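Cross-posting from the chemistry board since nobody answered there.

I work mostly on the small-molecule side, so proteins are not my area. We synthesized adenosine-5'-triphosphate and want a rough idea of how it might sit in this target. Sequence and SMILES are below. Is it possible to get a predicted 3D structure of the two together?
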Amino acid sequence: MAWNKKPLRRKDKQDALFAENARLEEERARGAIEDARAMTPDAQPEDELEVPKDTLGTVKRLWSAAKGERWRFGVVIAAILLYTGFHVAAPAYSAHVIDVLWANIQAAFAAGRTFTVTWDTGGQELAIYFGIWTGACALYSVQCFVMAGFAEKLNLSLRTSIAEKLNRLPLKFFDGHKPGEVVSRATNDLDKMSEVLQTGLLKLMSAVGTIIGALIMMCRYSLLLTGIFLVFALLSTLVTQYVSKQTLRLAAERQRYVGKLTATVEEAYSGRLIIKSFNREEASSAEVHELADKLATASRRADFVTNAISPLIRFIIRLAQVIIAMVAGGMLVGGQITIGVFQAFFHYIYQVSEPLTQLSFTINTLQNALASVERVFDILDEEEVEPDPAVEAAAHLPASVEGRVDFERVRFGYNLEKPLMRDVTFHVEPGQKIAIVGATGAGKTTLINLLMRFYEIGGGRIALDGVDTHELTRAALRQNFGMVLQDAWLFEGTIAENIAYGRPDATREEIVAAAKMAHVDHFVRTMPDGYDTRVENDAENISQGQRQLLTIARVILCDPKILILDEATSSVDTRTERDIVRAMETLMHGRTSFVIAHRLSTIVDADLILHMRAGTIIEQGTHEELLAENGPYAELYRSQFA
Ligand SMILES: Nc1ncnc2c1ncn2[C@@H]1O[C@H](COP(=O)(O)OP(=O)(O)OP(=O)(O)O)[C@@H](O)[C@H]1O
């Protein structure tokens, strides 16, 4: 079912058309809970451990998506190269500075002078050293700033592509994907990508450059010391690799519990009335407590591994430093290295070991982000609706549409293997009222879906005023229809804006006139700010019946040629129901109207009744004709009114 209709609970319970409502209600409730679960941002814990299916392909595609912004990436690379050069040069130059200072100090002591730093006795070297670090800092800021621009522009362009793509996706796509899933692609996945580009990729690139440069310098100073360091570095890398896998696994476990707990709390919140009415409060809060306990345990483990393990890695590096200090100390005493080189070597150890400890974690995060990007591309690759014909090639409806509708041998199925409609034919004259009846799942909504071209037919023809709807643009077709559904959709905005949704240029007078015709003006005036009252918090303060009246006003304002009404059968009071019926009658006057009828009593005056079963029209005619035929409709009618 394409529309999320509200459950039907009415006095005429015996109505055979709605025998399955309870089951439907249950199914819808279940669907809503599943949707809520999918809406939880962290509902896909397995994301944490995901790797891309095609790393190279995804990177290439991301690169082509960055067209127009690649220069920024070029600037980042140049800044990283220069930064790495400065960064690696600094310790080597510091060795020179210390050796110069040390030589000057010794010379001053030998001459019995007090040593002071002047431009010629080390000042010049100190100034250059300061300049190198200032340059490194400046280049670091440049790469962060430009990379942020690159990542956010890329994010924006992909997000825009998704937003445009969603408009071109067929409804079939939305039937098969939970809303939370799609929202998560456009928000979480893209945010993850830009965050990782800004931190992870940047870190990775400058880490690789620094590690290579520093190791070259270390080898130039001493192969022996570098060898000792590499043994320990290898050990710490293995530990890091193992730990980062554990961290991700534990983080995934934590996210799984966060997801479960959020869904359970949401479920308990939305079902609070039912929970209370069945006295299940204790059971409900026990479930929440149990999940909260599990979450606390999972969080404790994840935090321990994340926080307690890095001292272990540092310990391995410190051990390396102690051993290197002992060996290097011997070399210093033996005159194989200078004091400046001694301290510079330790600088390089720091420069290599810090990024090394983070390298495998950074690589995991990058892979994870690429997997997110892949999911974004998956949406962008989804099959789109058949494009509209070009405006000049499209057929045109007459300037004044009359509202004649023809279904000719229409065939359709939601999936190719399972045809639903095989041969649906009927003819509607302008201004007629057509009632569509049938048991739940008979295909009433589907008929409307096809008329509005929400789905494409598999065969046959649907015509409006004799023009094949397939040859029209969807916008040209749909502008002739007004729909009033049971699930009256209001958005966050004022009441006036909600009424004027289809005609944002409508004047206040027109809005009020429409509201009066819909019998909702009185109610609106009782609201705190009248027509300027904001509909917020899912319109909880507006009853189901009032919402429906507001949507009727919305359609009245658009003055469409053809109406589609899902008869009001929601749990509204008798007076509101009378208002709705009257408002609908006003609306139907002089227009072709399709009414999805839920009660046979309201359709006896219809010009044409389409009785549907299993996707097919099994009978059609006026009420009298169908009674005279004495078929299934007559039987149904007699079962209700006998
Ligand atoms: N989006 C969809 N994807 C796949 N199958 C669908 C979809 N919408 C409806 N169906 C199936 O098509 C058949 C007709 O459904 P439809 O919603 O048209 O019935 P209906 O007569 O409007 O029912 P109800 O009175 O309960 O609203 C049902 O078997 C339903 O399960």
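Reply from a structural biologist on the board:
Welcome over. Reading the output above for you: The mean pLDDT is 83. Residues 1-2, 5, 24, 175, 414, 420, 438, 440-446 surround adenosine-5'-triphosphate (CB under 6 Å). Happy to explain the token format if needed.
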